[in-house]
Structures are given as C-alpha cells and as structure tokens.
Structure to design on (612 residues):
C-alpha cells in the first residue's frame, strides 16, 4: 500500500476533523446568514430549526404589482446546491410568468441553475419578476397576451385580481399587503 | 500444492501453481517508476492477497465489472454495498446476474457469483444503504471504489471519507477511487481525501440533468420529452397535490404516460412511449456495457497500483469520451479552497469555560490570524448565533449571553460561516 501519510504531513499538517454537518446544510447556513435583503423581502421559517423549508414574502414598492404581498415557498433538499431549491408561489396571482398552480417561470430555477448561484440570486430573480414581468416567457399565456396587446387593460386586470376579484371566470387571491 | 501456496504469499486458500503468473510479473520486481516503498515479491503479494481489505460501493453496471476485475487480480477480501434489487433490464450488462435472480438483492447475488467462480475470494455483501454504516465500518478498509450512478450517494461517500481523516491517525486516510459513466462518456478518478481534490471540488463540472424551460413545457412543446415533463412537472402536482411521483411505481408511470400521450396528440408530436416516459422521469441515460468495462478497468488498475505501490497511480482525473471515436484525457483536477467538504479551514481554539458566545464571536472578529466579519455559528443541528435573516437572528440572540460550554461539549465542533470566508471554518473548542 502506498504511504499517503507523508504527503499529507507535507501538504496540510494543520488539517483537523470536520464537523458532521452535511455540505448542503453548511451551504444553506452560509446562504441564509449572508442574506442582505431589501425591506421589500422577508423570510419566515415556520420551524426555525429547519433551514431547508421556509417562505419568502415580496412586497414590491414600485411597478405594476406594488401594494401586494406575494408569498413563495422554498424547499431545499440534501442535494443542494447541485439541485436548485424548489420554489412555488402559494397564492393565485395574475402574472405572465406564474401559472395558477403557483409554478414560476424563472430560468435560474430550472435550466440555468448552477451550484455557484445562491438563495440571494433566486430571491432577487423572483423580485425582478414583479418589477419587470416578462411577456416573452409566459406561463400564464392569457396574461402575457393581454400585457403585449393592451398594457392599460393588463394593468387594470392586475389591479382587479390583486384585490381578490374574478377575471374571465377565475378567482384570484387577495394579495393586498394591507389585507395580510 | 503446498509449495505454490506459500510462493503466492497465501497459506489460507488454494492458490494453484502459477495462478497469478501474469500479475506476479509486475509484483516480483520493481520497475523504473515504482514507488521506493515497493516491497517486491512476497511482501507485496502477502499484503494484496492476505491483508488488503477493499470496499466496493455499487453492484450495478460498474460494480459487476469492478468485482470481477478485483477478484481476478488477486484481491481476496472484498466487501460490497448495494441497496438495489435486480431488474430484468439489468441483465444485458450486469453479467453476474441471471434471469432467475430478478428481484433479489444485487449485492448478495454478485457476492455469491464471484465466490463460486473465483476460488479463495471472500466477498462480503451488504444489502442496504451506505448511510446505514458508521465511521468504524469504513475505517476497516484500505481502499474504497465507488461505482455509483447517484450524485447524492457519491457526495455522501466522499464527505464521509474526507471527514474520516484524523490528523493523529494515519490509518484514517482511505483512498477513494470513483468511477462514473453516462452513455458513451465516463470518468475515473483517484481521490486522496484532504490531499487531492475531492468529488465535491468538481461538483459544478458535472453534467446537469437536462431541464427544459418551464414556459416551453407549458406553452410551446415541440419534443416528446416536453410532453412528459409537462405531465410530471405541471400536471402531476396539480392533480395529485403533495403526493410525490414514485418513479418505480408502474401505476404512476402509466398515469404520466397517458397524460403525456394525450398532450402529444394535441400538439401533433410523435414519440411518447412508456419507456421514454420512464427514462425522462427517472432521468435515465442509456448505460453502455463497453463504457462500464473501460471505466471499471481503469478504477481497478488504480486500486491495484495503490494497494501494491507497483506503479505510479492516476493523478487524478481520467475522462473518456466515446461519442465520436475514442478520446481520453488525463489531468490534475485542482483542490478548491472554497470546497464545502475538503476546503475551508479548521482550527483548534482553547477558551475559558466561562466565555460567552458573544465573547467568542468578538475574538473571532478581532484576532489578527482569523479576522472574520459577522460570523454565524452552528454546531451540528444547533444554531448558536445567526447574523441573518432577522427571524433567526432574533431566535438565536439569547444564546449570545450563554456560555459556550453550555452549548458545546469539550472537544466539540463549531461551524463558522461568514462572507469573508471562502466557505466555512471549523472550530474545535476545548475549555480551560
Ligand atoms: Zn473538495
């Protein structure tokens, strides 16, 4: 058997045993404790012991979705950051990049996820969806078409649905920040 | 018989004359590139055949090849772990299994087959998960070879072997040889835990499973895969709520297949089949027997060289690309300072039993040799103090007043993260 120990002594005599915490766990600790969120975003941990499951509330202070409070659930598994966090919107919202089941169309949550990205990047990306909805990558096709066709009508639709109104037979959740 | 038995450095098993004639050509005399510690002749043969204990993780496509290679090169004490049972679709390449074995545990059937076929070799199977075993179990081996298809299992194995390294115990350093294949591509690598780059160091080099943009799946499907993803990513949770897809349940696959087929008809897309559905949801890349054979051979070659010191071993990454001809490339993957598993720093710190958490944090911030800005501390599952987010800062703030010795036992570990650290710092605390 080759003797590896001599190489070890040379290279890092100071190495010490590492704790038993998983790499995913430490990485989530790092991501979360280094978050520097603007006042428009807040995290909430239903079980503060469990860092892998929490919600994010976004309350945009400008743009078409201003005055709303939008909730997203984050579920992180032990293969993080090899796999992205699973993020869903927990409300029914009228938005070109969200469907009525809460799925989110954000490239870094799927096809463009990389382990160098972090939770901060995901949260910033989500907030951006409310500042700049993108009609070119629609999940809610009707909303996207409306936004392209008639921006004023789209804005009226956003306002109606944010108050919990109905639109074309579909009911939306009241997401007004003042109501929550 | 007795003479040849002794000549092979093995008095316990029935080694017939010249059983290892070809292997012995390498072991009987040093070559130009052999390690100075090489004990040509009986010494090395005795180690390989009587003392060396090797662990094989996985008894699937790679594992079957690895087990056969090891047994035939003269390893005689082999252990194998696998949590799977044999499926009929394995039989084309996992050559230790026969149709009568379908449904039985791979590890057990593979062990029996090797022992029957290669006399004198002891293969000890474990049918279960690698996570079932503790450090003492892994400490008994000289070498570990991984032939797995799961990233998660390899990350676990890699982290376990890196964590096993105890600076006071040379025996705790276990070389890990990792093989992997994906269709016509494959890689073999030698990982010397804490010395050379580990599996986690190269995690971002991995091919990610193909993910299609969710808006394409939802609105503009063009491929049969888009229809299957639509069924599994969007329709399944809509209809079944929180219930997860069980990719081994034929009923679940059947449901997805039907929903995807209907979708495909609506969009005039052809090619949605049962097996494609299963392939997409399980993220199966067709396994190629010859790729497995090449990678397993490379892994076993390295195991042999490391166990015997008979030749220089791979430093440290061999990749094979068989998609257009046969291309291979060997290079040294560099150890990363910010690797979550083998990188980062660790240090011993001795503090008074009376020190509060706040005092420890001040020290970490002020000490010239550390200088960490805004550190967050945890120990195992316990959050000691988190700088953010606000809810967790508030929840952990009362700990600032507590004594470190109330939260962590003598010799215990604290994991420190901070923006100024590449990844994390591991503190081993002793109290005075
Ligand atoms: Zn590493």
């Amino acid at each position: 058997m080759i003797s590896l120990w001599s190489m070890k002594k040379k290279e890092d005599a100071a190495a010490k045993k590492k704790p038993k915490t998983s790499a995913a766990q430490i990485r989530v600790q790092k991501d979360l404790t280094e978050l520097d969120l603007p006042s428009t975003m807040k995290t909430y941990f239903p079980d503060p012991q469990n860092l892998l499951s929490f919600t994010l509330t976004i309350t945009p202070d400008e743009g078409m979705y201003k005055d709303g409070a939008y909730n997203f659930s984050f579920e992180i598994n032990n293969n993080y950051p090899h796999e992205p966090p699973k993020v869903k919107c927990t409300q029914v919202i009228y938005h070109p990049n969200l469907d009525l089941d809460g799925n989110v169309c954000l490239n870094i949550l799927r096809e463009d996820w990389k382990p160098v990205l972090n939770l901060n990047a995901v949260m910033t990306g989500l907030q951006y969806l409310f500042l700049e909805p993108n009609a070119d990558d629609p999940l809610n096709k009707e909303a996207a078409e409306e936004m392209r066709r008639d921006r004023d009508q789209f804005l009226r639709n956003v306002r109606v649905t944010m108050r919990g109104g109905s639109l074309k037979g579909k009911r939306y959740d009241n997401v007004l920040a003042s109501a929550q | 018989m007795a003479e040849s038995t002794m000549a092979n450095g093995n008095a316990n098993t029935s080694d017939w004359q010249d059983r290892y004639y070809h292997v012995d050509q390498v072991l009987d005399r040093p070559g130009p590139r052999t390690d100075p510690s090489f004990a040509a002749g009986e010494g090395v043969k005795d180690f390989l055949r009587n003392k060396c204990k090797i662990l094989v993780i996985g008894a699937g496509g790679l594992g079957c090849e690895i087990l056969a290679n090891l047994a035939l090169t003269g390893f005689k004490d082999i252990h194998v772990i696998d949590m799977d049972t044999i499926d009929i679709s394995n039989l084309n390449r996992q050559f230790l299994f026969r149709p009568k074995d379908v449904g039985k545990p791979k590890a057990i059937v593979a062990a029996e087959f090797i022992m029957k076929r290669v006399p004198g070799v002891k293969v000890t199977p474990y049918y279960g998960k690698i996570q079932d075993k503790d450090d003492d179990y892994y400490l008994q081996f000289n070498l570990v070879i991984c032939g797995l298809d799961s990233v998660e299992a390899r990350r676990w194995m890699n982290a376990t072997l890196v964590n096993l390294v105890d600076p006071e115990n040379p025996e705790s350093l276990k070389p890990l040889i990792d093989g992997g294949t994906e269709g016509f591509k494959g890689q073999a690598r030698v990982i010397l835990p804490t010395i050379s780059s580990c599996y986690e160091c190269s995690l971002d080099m991995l091919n990610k499973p193909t993910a299609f943009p969710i808006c394409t799946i939802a609105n503009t499907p063009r491929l049969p895969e888009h229809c299957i993803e639509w069924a599994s990513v969007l329709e399944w949770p809509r209809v079944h709520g929180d219930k997860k897809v069980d990719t081994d349940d034929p009923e679940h696959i059947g449901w997805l297949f039907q929903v995807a087929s209907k979708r495909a008809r609506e969009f005039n897309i052809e090619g949605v089949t049962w097996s494609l559905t299963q392939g997409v949801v399980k993220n199966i890349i067709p396994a190629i027997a010859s790729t497995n054979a090449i990678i397993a051979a490379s892994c076993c070659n390295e195991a042999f060289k490391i166990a015997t010191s008979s030749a220089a071993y791979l430093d440290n990454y061999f990749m094979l690309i068989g998609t257009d001809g046969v291309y291979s490339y060997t290079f040294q993957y560099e150890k990363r300072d910010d690797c979550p598993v083998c990188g980062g720093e660790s240090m011993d710190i001795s503090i008074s039993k009376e020190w509060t958490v706040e005092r420890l944090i001040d020290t970490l911030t002020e000490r010239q040799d550390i200088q960490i800005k805004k550190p967050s501390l945890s120990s195992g599952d316990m959050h000691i103090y988190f700088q953010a987010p606000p809810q967790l800062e508030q929840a952990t703030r009362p700990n600032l007043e507590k004594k470190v010795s109330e939260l962590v036992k003598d010799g215990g570990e604290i994991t420190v993260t901070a923006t100024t650290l590449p990844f994390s710092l591991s503190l081993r605390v002793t109290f005075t």
Q: What stands out?
A: The radius of gyration of chain B is 26 Å.
